[in-house]
Write a structure and sequence with these properties.
Length: 130
């Protein structure tokens, strides 16, 4: 997902291009503004964190580009996470999306599912009709 900061900064083309150049295929995409219920469900695992409210405020403040990206094997989530880069701005390597374009951990441009199971859960949330 290109998060609100990515859409606001005009980085969607750059980000999608990186997945495509890698050899992954975009099989669904939708620009939409998440309501709080969707954002809270998306970040359910962080519900008890002190920054949960801030996270939901951020995700709902303007449109995101939700995407389903497909690859040839069942490790697509892992390939995407490598392209995206580490969560913390201090650790995100140059060459990754976050390493090249993000200057804060809170607004780090992209979300990527962290397992096959979370990819399925998140596809069901964002693309209920797919
Ligand atoms: P990800 O899977 O790499 O996105 O990382 P996590 O699932 O651990 O965290 C989800 C998102 O929460 C991150 O991508 C950040 O945007 C945000 N985040 C992480 N730590 C903090 C924090 O301390 N404060 C705030 N406001 N957001 C944070």
């Amino acid at each position: 997902m290109c998060k609100p900061d990515a859409v606001e900064r005009g980085l969607v083309g750059e980000i999608v291009a990186r997945f495509e150049r890698k050899g992954l295929t975009l099989v669904a995409a939708e620009l939409k503004t998440a309501d709080r219920a969707l954002a809270e469900a998306h970040y359910d695992e962080h519900r008890d964190k002190p920054f949960f409210g801030e996270l939901v405020d951020f995700l709902t403040r303007s449109p995101v580009l939700a995407m389903v990206v497909e690859g040839p094997a069942d490790n697509t989530f892992s390939i995407c996470r490598t392209l995206i880069g580490k969560t913390s701005v201090d650790d995100a390597q140059p060459g990754s999306i976050r390493g090249d374009f993000a200057t804060t951990t809170n607004e780090n441009l992209v979300h990527g599912s962290d397992s096959h199971e979370s990819a399925q859960r998140e596809i069901d949330l964002w693309f209920p009709n797919l």
